[in-house]
Write a structure and sequence with these properties.
GO terms for molecular function: hydrolase activity. With 324 residues, this protein is an alpha/beta fold. The protein has one domain: Alpha/Beta hydrolase fold, catalytic domain (Rossmann fold, 3-Layer(aba) Sandwich). It has helices at residues 44-52, 79-92, 105-116, 139-147, 153-156, 162-169, 171-181, 201-204, 218-231, 234-241, 243-249, 271-275, 282-287, 304-307, 309-321; strands spanning 8-14, 17-24, 28-33, 55-60, 98-103, 121-127, 262-267, 291-297. An eight-stranded mixed beta sheet has the order 1-2-4-3-5-6-7-8.
């Protein structure tokens, strides 16, 4: 066990983009993939804990975020590009394999990695987004259907411009609202009480309590505000705009079984689980024969790796210790 290895930052060339990564520790590699609106920093607690336990932990700013390049065309965020990013990152670091962890959009990508990049994935540590079967219809058709009934961000984000302008003009307000709204302290699906017509995302998100919160202080929040004030949100929004492309490209791979060792972790108050009904893990268990354990953290919401860092770290370390 060691906790003295410093956190370092560097930029590596991965395919056609420059990717910023934070690294800490040495030993077997673990790659942590964040979602929206995240950064490498979303894994700060895991970087510290996993590196102290003897692992080399690598947390990139994903394509479109932070100090990593952000292609302007949404097609640059399809599954081919995002898988190539992760394979290219391993190649750039001279690694044959790694354990991959994913959260939110990062989890969606990481679920696809074993079948898109066989041989490169040693195991999966998945947060918040269970594996589900491929949608029977194009995602944007489903989003449009939902948006006819109530506000849904998945539809609002599709058109280039409105969300980019709204969120980019108010990064501090948006980040505080979305972090609170998706946390265990709020019921996110109350946003569905609002109609789509005439509303932006800031209109439907609840007002957050003042910082500090039990899991986020002013300095931590300030890092997100600084980065997204500088970059805007278009890179992150482009992941949503690539949903149809990902759906098309995944046609023959999405529902193949995932046999690599896997652990799944979520907060009990995560709206993703609420939307999936009474048995959110039933389908995942069938689709992921490699699933070794599932953990639900009482009271935590969508950002479980920050809201319940100690519990998440313990589940991750137990899983990693059990790998051959």
């Amino acid at each position: 066990m060691t906790d003295h290895m410093p956190l370092t930052h560097r930029t590596v060339r991965v395919g056609e983009i420059d990717m910023h990564i934070a690294e800490q520790g040495s030993g077997d590699p673990v790659v942590l993939c964040h979602g929206f609106p995240g950064l490498w920093y979303s894994w700060r607690h895991q970087l510290r804990a996993l590196s102290a336990a003897g692992y080399r932990v690598i947390a990139p700013d994903m394509r479109g975020y932070g100090r990593t390049d952000a292609p302007s065309d949404p097609s640059g965020y399809d599954r081919r590009h995002t898988v190539d990013d992760m394979v290219g990152l391993l190649d750039a670091l001279g690694l044959e394999q790694a354990v991959f962890a994913g959260h939110d959009f990062g989890a969606q990508l990481v679920w696809d990695l074993p079948n898109w990049a066989p041989g490169r994935v040693r195991g999966l540590m998945q947060l918040s987004v269970p594996r589900t079967p491929r949608a029977p219809i194009r995602p944007t058709i489903g989003f449009r259907h939902l948006a006819a009934q109530h506000f849904v961000h998945l539809h609002y984000f599709q058109e280039y411009g409105p969300a980019d302008r709204e969120l980019g003009a108010n990064p501090k307000e948006f980040l505080a609202k979305i972090f609170h709204a998706l946390s265990g302290a709020n019921r996110y699906l109350d946003c569905w009480d609002f109609p789509s017509e005439g509303n932006g995302y800031l209109d439907v998100l609840p007002d957050p309590p003042a910082l500090p919160w039990p899991w986020l202080d002013e300095n931590e929040f300030g890092y997100y505000v600084e980065e997204f004030t500088r970059t805007g949100f278009t890179g992150g929004l482009n992941w949503y705009r690539a949903d149809d492309l990902v759906w098309e490209q995944d046609e023959h791979l999405h529902d193949l079984p995932i046999t690599v060792p896997t652990v799944f972790i979520a907060g009990s108050q995560d709206p993703v689980l609420e939307m999936m009904g009474d048995k959110p893990f039933e389908t995942m268990t069938a689709m992921v024969p490699g699933l070794r354990s599932t953990h639900v953290v009482p009271g935590a919401g969508h950002f479980v790796q920050m809201e319940a860092a100690d519990e998440v770290n313990r589940f991750m370390l137990d899983f990693l210790a059990g790998l051959d």
